[in-house]
Amino acid sequence: MKRTVTVVLASMCLCVPLAAQDKEKIDQRLAEAGKAFGEIMAVRDKNIPGDILDKAECVVIIPGMVKGGFIVGGQGGRGAVSCRGPNKSGWGAPAMLEMGGGSVGLQIGASSTDVVMLVMNKAGMDSLLKDKFTIGADASVAAGPVGRATTAETDAALKAKILSYSRSKGAFGGVALKGTTLKQDNDANKVLYGKEVDAKNILDGPTPTPASAKPMLQALNQYSPAGK
Questions:
Q1: pLDDT tens, residue by residue, 189-219
Q2: Quick check: is 3 in a domain?
Q3: Helical H runs in the chain?
């Protein structure tokens, strides 16, 4: 009996540092998402055009999605998505996501790729809020224009529900992500918000923003502030 109690107590003690470690990883993921987006937007004439970013309903950021190789299939990464509040009142609390499947074109020898997706309309956002959806099947996707995009490029791109971009080894541009899947990272959301919560409730409702998410939201607000 004494041995059983000892084992139970030891297991309980292990839970605290493991939970704290999970929280650290999620906080780091959010910090990396904000840093990646800020670095991408800071490069003039080679970033996401401001007028397109201002039209986006939500922004998905997957920092360091894949590693190695020229064409990487069946791999993925984790990141977060934030959506605008009512009347574009600012970027709301993020929901954590997982990306996987499909193939992503990379530069040869690339060690890491940051992926950014702009969800351009309500239909795209509804697709995003499914438990799991496949880009290109459940929602149309196009490689997003970069820098000083022409009117023709912009008009063509805005017909898609989602515009996708990637950055590897300093090179940034639009990339096709057809066949890639996105799904809610329920475990990460539970750790981040301290309870089980659906991504739809996070993104649709007035969810308080966790302190660790503020760097990501600051980066979004810097380049596409409230009212845009």
A1: 999 999 999 888 998 878 899 999 999 999 9
A2: no
A3: 2-42, 50-53, 122-128, 151-157, 186-193, 199-204, 214-223
